[in-house]
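Hi W.,

Here's what went into the run:
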Amino acid sequence: MSTPASDRDNIVCEARQVWTVFDDNVVHQNLNLQVHSGQIVALVGGSGSGKTTLLRHIVGLTVPTRGEIFLFGENLHEVDRLKQQRLMNRLGMLFQQGALFSALSVYDNIAFPLRELKQFDEETICRLVMHKLSLVELEPKHGLLLPAQLSGGMIKRVGLARALALEPELLVLDEPTAGLDPDRSKKFVELIKQLKHTLGLTVLFVTHDLDTLAQMADRVAVLADKQIVADCALSELGAVDHPFVNNFFHDISTRMERAQ
Amino acid sequence: MAAASFHIELDQQGRPHIRLHGQWSLRSLENDFAALKTSLAPYFSDPFTSWDLQQVEQLDTAAAAVLWAGWGAKIDNRINLTDEQRKVFDMLGRLDTSIRVRKQPDLMGPLASLGKTTFEFIAHLRDFMQLLGLLFMEIFYVLRRPREFPLREFSANIYKSGVTALPISALLGFMIGIALGYLMSKQLRAFGADIFIVNILGLGIIRELGPMLMAVLVAGRSGSAMTAQIGVMRVTEEIDALTTMGISRILRVVLPKVLGLTFVAPLLVLWTSAWSLLGGAMSANIELGISFRFFFEYLPTVVQPVNLTLSLIKGLLFGFVVTLIACHFGLRVKPNTESLSMSTTSSVVTAITAVILIDAQFAILTRGIGI
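Here's what came out:
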């Protein structure tokens, strides 16, 4: 590997020679990806290119057919159960639909991972939940609501607060702005950027929305032809010679000009 | 990364001075804040202890909240912090945690909950009557426009709740028939009244057990499935999608289920009763030496055929009630998992209770017929 040793230390997650095969359908073919600490990395690609599948591999929901996924330098599926649980506590995931526990109130949703840790008393948990609510700019009274009573934007915020409950290093977002109107989506992106700054997060996200991408990403990993065909800063995408990337860069650069 | 740790020094007057080291955060995997809190507990309560957090590499809000709670929710000059850490504690102090304060237990609580239950029961009854009314309106509508009849759904329901229930209802009926037949044979032989086993089994199974077994089976098997299905359709807004297409949800969702099961229920009763009788006859054959041929030739002479009619009417009624209750609870599911599980349970329990109550009524009303 050509990566220098100092650089290797701050790799948060890594996919090494990953193959994913569903029946006869090859989704990933010898795919490699590294996410370094402190970056906001966007994973982009056409519909059905296997973005969400890769994301699910990284957070340990599924296992690739071949190859390995490393999270904080460890292979999730090779460590024992306790270690696995503690490793997973170091990442927070925001699902596309929020995936809030519908039987629990907002407060209990956010308190859930804290209670599972069995290290805090209720008073401390309460303070921490209130802190997470204020981080995502919700008010204490929202804690009493049930997920069914929330609007789309609030569901995302609560999902984010729950993902942040254990102070993770890596935040994984699946379509963070899907289903939000442009104004809300812009605010949500700003919130994530601000949180990334204050909490020192590494963020990996999948999106279809070019505006979100242009506003948020430091780096872009483009998934096409079953592989990562480009992994660089947004502005450097123009130098990559690949039909999907060229097309994509054209769309995004007009947006970035408009934004400036 | 070093795990969170602390170091205790005593000054000249013997007062402890505690220096915290390492990563006071959840990111360091070895940290256990419950243990740290326990070992620090004696110093938290000691007013002469001074604290130094200058050497802490990283302090996150979780660790800060534990320390904050330990210090009694205040920062004073015994605690030496960096500016960064002071900001974290100030922020924690400003948070409004009053939301956790729960209401005092209410003396009128039981009375209030009784009232609530009563109102809820009335609401259920009202909704159920409304559903029944709507269903009959749809039936009259379909009678006038037979082309609108949801034939595909109707036949799908016959298959799902009727045909696929055949093996299990046969097995259940047969087994219960054997058990009943065996017990009765033992008792009747003691009185030398062997022959009466045909009367008792015939009347008991055809008039009571067959319809009851079928109703319990259908409530548990198809009723719960219907409630869950309609419930999920409500959660995923499929029911609303139907309505926006101008399709009546009663006509397309409730009606085929109710008519399908009501149609197939009497047939299931016949099927279940037949297998029960076969099981009973087998027991009688083994225990009392009554031949199958004799059993089934003697049966129509001691059990009047009107009992079969009663049994089929019961089957119709039970099938109708079970499905209607299942649909009623399905349509009341709220979009969360708890409500879905509660509605499904209530659906099965209510259906079985209702069937037993109706059966008792039926037994009283038809006491002069066929016996």
